[in-house]
Structure formats: structure tokens, C-alpha cells
Design brief:
Elements (H helix, E strand, L loop, with lengths): L2 H17 L4 E3 L2 E2 L15 E4 L2 E7 L10 E7 L2 E6 L2 E6 L7 E7 L4 E6 L5 E10 L17 E8 L7 E7 L6 E6 L4 E7 L18 E6 L7 E4 L17 E5 L4 E6 L2 E6 L7 E6 L7 E6 L5 E6 L20 E7 L6 E8 L16 E4 L6 E5 L5 E5 L7 E8 L12 E7 L2 E6 L3 E7 L4 H5 L4 E2 L10
Antiparallel strand pairs: 1-2, 1-3, 3-28, 4-31, 5-6, 5-32, 6-7, 7-8, 9-10, 10-11, 11-12, 13-14, 14-15, 15-16, 17-18, 18-19, 19-20, 21-22, 22-23, 23-24, 25-26, 26-27, 27-28, 29-30, 30-31
């Protein structure tokens, strides 16, 4: 056989091995043929599979140097990273060398951001009671009738000079929110929040509802709450008291709600009057956290945030079915649609007892004819997995750091990891922003180019 042919076949074989995620690289070189770690990592030591490149890290700095970093949103060549104390806008035109454009200090957790489709408006969740709606507010107490929490709106037309526009109070604050497109001049925000108490004047039980904020896009200063639909009139499963996160799939006028005690399918044909079609419960799930649809909208992955994100749950004691993802098919039509369980997925790498680790935020990788996701696991790092076979999902790549401490459990790791225009962006709670690249990624995924991305607003990808 000709030498060049042998070389090509060898390269193809190596590529197949790499895509299967069977080679591991740590900061000290090659390791054995497994995605499992063969030893515990040292503090801050970096490890990753051979098909994942770590291109860049921008550490926490400036006025947000001590803030907990949270979620991400994207518009063209910009990434917006939320924190508990404001937000950072990055220029990611060159993903290998991201640059900070501006940092905007604005107190109030947890700071999850979304951006309007024209990149002009930024919406930020506030789920820590504040003394007032301004950016100079101080933390307050939810029992204080004058305390404020909800949504803040900013004009970021000039990315270097954001302007505070408006605040909207919402019941129980805004733990997360979802951007829901309306007509040309209107968008809606579905506000997910929880934790009611009879002692909280703005967060009374049972709170089995969401708040809907209508935003006139040309006049965002007129934004207001227009509805607070009760999604679970019967109280829901497991004493459901609100939703943690909602992902919308506009092409099918459908949403998937991670609503504490259950995962829900929600009809959003009229975005101002959503209603639950059906829901699923799972004895292995402690806290339904987030949801991601497949590109055809026929399947959804729910995550379970066992331990609230602050516990070490990626270990043999907890096992593979708790603190994991659950893959569900969506069967039926119209109001007869239902969720049918297929399997669990959890990272195969055991983490140390000082590492908080559990399924957290991720997004679909737009690979044609394949179902692939990238996902954060706090100190379990960033995982890339393939669930094209929904009964046998498997990890095909990863990136992670060793613990923040070998002696004490400290909150850290990847809060969110999303695929955007051929790269993976990870918001790390204490390390800032990481940029990763999946080498050998499907060409169909790399051909998809978006002008904006709010990961909880899923459009149909075309390549």
C-alpha cells in the first residue's frame, strides 16, 4: 500500500480515537486510554482530553475581581458574562485572544444575562434583595417590605459605555430569566424564581408561578410585568414552588421547564399565556435545574442540581444516576405530548471531596444528524457528550482543573459552558472566562454562525 495512503488512514484512525474521547492529556502530557482520571489532580492543575484545546483564560479582575461569576450571553463578536456584582463585556472576535471591552459594577446576585436580538439591550437577573433598584444598592433582607429584586435593563448599544435604563420588580426576584421573542417590536422575559416564605412580603407561598415581563424593544423604559401565570394549580410534584429555569423552543411553540420538583413541557403558543402540557418526576432527581432541546425539538435533556451546586456529588458514593442529566423523548402531539425517560448521563471522572460537582448549564452543539452537548459541571469541569443513541450517552471530551483546595470544600468551577460559533466558552466562578476548542468537531457544527445566543432560547440550527 502506498505510504501516503497509509498516512491518511493513520490520521483518520487517530481522529476517530480522539473523537471517541479515549485519549487524555493533562498539563504533564499523555495519560492512559480512558476519560476517567487515573489520579487526583493537584490544586489548579489542568487536565483535558486530547480533542480539547484550552485556547485562552481571562481571569477575574478589576471591580469584579472578587465576585462570583455566573452565566453568559452572546451577540456577534461579544460575550457578556454575568456576576453577582455586575457584568463584563468581552470582544471575542479572535477567540484565542479575548479582550475586556468594559466592566460594569452593579450589585445584586446572581446576574444571569440575556441580550436582545439586535444586541442593543441587556437584561440581568437580580435574586438577592436590594436596598433599592439602582446599581449602587446594598444587600437587604427579603422580609423588608422596601427591598427590591427582579430584572434590570441596560442599553449596551455602545459596548464600552453601558447605560442603566430600567428595573422591574418581580415576585421572589429573578433567579434566572428566559428571553422569549415576540413580534418585531416586543420581547418577553419569563422570570423563574423560588423560595417563598410567609415572612417575605414580595414572595408569598405557594408561588407555583412565573412572572412575564413585556419589553417594548423601542421603549424599554416602559417594560412591566403583564402576567404571573400559575403553572401548577394543583401545587405540582414534590411541593414545587416555582421554576429554576425555562428553555423555550420557538419553532415548536414549546418550552421545557425545570421546575424544582418536576420537569415540565409548556405550551407557549401565546407567549403571554403559557400552560403546562405534561410533566415528569424522577426519584433520582433532587432539584430540576435546567433543560436543553435537541435540534428537532423531539428530545430534551434535564439536569439535576443535587446539593444546590455546593456539594461533592461526582463520586462513587452518590453514583451515576443522581446529580446527573436525564434524557427524555417527547412523544405525542399537541396537548397529548408527554416526556418519556431514556437514560442518565453523568461525567465518568470521579471528583475529590473538596470539589463541588454536579450537572449544570450547557447547550446543544449544532452537529447535523448527531445529538451533542457541551455542559458545565462546576469543579467537574466542562464535559462534551454525545447522546445520539439516547439510551447510551457517552462523554467524548472534557476540560477541568484540580480543586481550589485539597483541605476544604470551596465553591468554584465552570458555571456555564456553551458552544458559540465553533468554540466553547466557559464561565468559571473563580477563574473568569475560558475559551476551548473541540478539535475534529463535525463540519456541520463549525458551519453554523450565529449573530446572537441566549442559550435558554433555542432556535433551529441550519448549516
Amino acid at each position: 500500500m502506498h505510504g501516503s495512503t497509509l498516512a491518511r488512514r493513520a490520521r483518520r484512525a487517530l481522529k476517530a480515537v480522539v473523537l471517541a474521547g479515549v485519549l487524555v492529556v493533562t498539563s504533564f502530557g499523555m495519560a492512559g486510554p480512558s476519560t476517567a482520571q487515573d489520579r487526583d489532580l493537584d490544586v489548579d492543575e489542568i487536565a483535558h482530553s486530547a480533542n480539547v484545546k484550552h485556547l485562552a483564560n481571562i481571569p477575574r479582575q478589576g471591580p469584579l475581581a472578587e465576585a462570583t461569576h455566573s452565566d453568559l450571553a452572546f451577540y456577534r463578536d461579544y460575550a457578556i458574562q454575568g456576576t453577582y456584582a455586575g457584568f463584563t463585556i468581552y470582544d471575542i472576535k479572535n477567540p484565542r485572544k479575548p479582550k475586556i471591552v468594559t466592566q460594569f459594577a452593579c450589585n445584586g446576585g446572581q446576574g444571569d444575562p440575556t441580550v436582545s436580538e439586535d444586541g442593543r439591550l441587556l437584561f440581568v437577573s437580580v435574586d438577592t434583595p436590594q436596598s433599592d433598584p439602582s446599581c449602587t444598592s446594598t444587600n437587604s433582607n427579603a422580609a423588608n417590605p422596601d427591598a427590591w429584586e427582579g430584572i434590570r435593563i441596560f442599553d449596551i448599544s455602545d459596548k464600552r459605555h453601558p447605560k442603566y435604563v430600567k428595573s422591574v420588580r418581580t415576585d421572589c426576584g429573578s433567579h434566572t430569566h428566559t428571553y422569549v421573542p415576540g413580534d418585531r417590536d416586543t420581547a418577553y422575559l419569563y422570570i423563574s424564581s423560588y423560595g417563598p416564605s410567609p415572612t417575605f412580603p414580595h414572595c408569598q407561598p405557594p408561588h407555583d408561578s412565573i412572572s412575564i415581563v413585556e419589553v417594548p424593544l423601542r421603549h424599554p423604559d416602559a417594560a412591566s410585568v403583564i402576567a404571573t401565570p400559575v403553572l401548577f394549580p394543583d401545587g405540582g410534584a414534590g411541593a414545587t414552588a416555582g421554576c429554576h429555569d425555562i428553555t423555550v423552543f420557538p419553532a415548536k411553540k414549546l418550552a421545557a421547564g425545570a421546575c424544582m420538583g418536576e420537569g415540565a413541557l409548556i405550551d407557549i403558543s401565546d407567549p403571554t399565556e403559557p400552560y403546562v402540557i405534561s410533566s415528569a418526576t424522577d426519584d433520582n432527581f433532587a432539584f430540576w435545574h435546567s433543560a436543553t432541546f435537541t435540534n428537532d425539538g423531539n428530545r430534551v435533556v434535564f439536569t439535576d442540581e443535587l446539593g444546590g451546586g455546593g456539594a461533592p456529588t461526582c463520586n462513587e458514593e452518590i453514583g451515576p444516576n443522581r446529580g446527573a442529566d436525564a434524557v427524555y423523548d417527547i412523544k405525542g402531539e399537541g396537548d397529548d405530548r408527554r416526556l418519556v425517560f431514556r437514560s442518565y448521563f453523568k461525567i465518568p471522572r470521579m471528583q475529590q471531596q473538596t470539589e463541588n460537582c454536579v450537572a449544570h448549564n450547557g447547550s446543544l452543539i449544532p452537529a447535523k444528524h448527531r445529538d451533542m452537548m457541551v455542559q458545565s459541571w462546576y469543579q467537574g469541569g466542562v464535559s462534551i457528550f454525545d447522546f445520539t443513541d439516547p439510551d447510551h450517552p457517552k462523554e467524548i471530551g472534557y476540560f477541568e482543573r484540580g480543586p481550589l483546595s485539597k483541605d476544604t470544600l470551596q465553591l468554584g468551577g465552570s458555571w456555564s459552558a456553551y458552544w458559540y460559533n465553533g468554540y466553547i466558552y466557559s464561565s468559571d466562578i473563580t477563574k473568569g472566562l475560558d475559551v476551548l476548542q473541540l478539535t475534529g468537531a463535525p463540519n456541520s457544527a463549525n458551519r453554523v454562525h450565529l449573530d446572537f445566543l441566549n442559550p435558554q432560547t433555542q432556535y433551529v440550527y441550519t448549516s
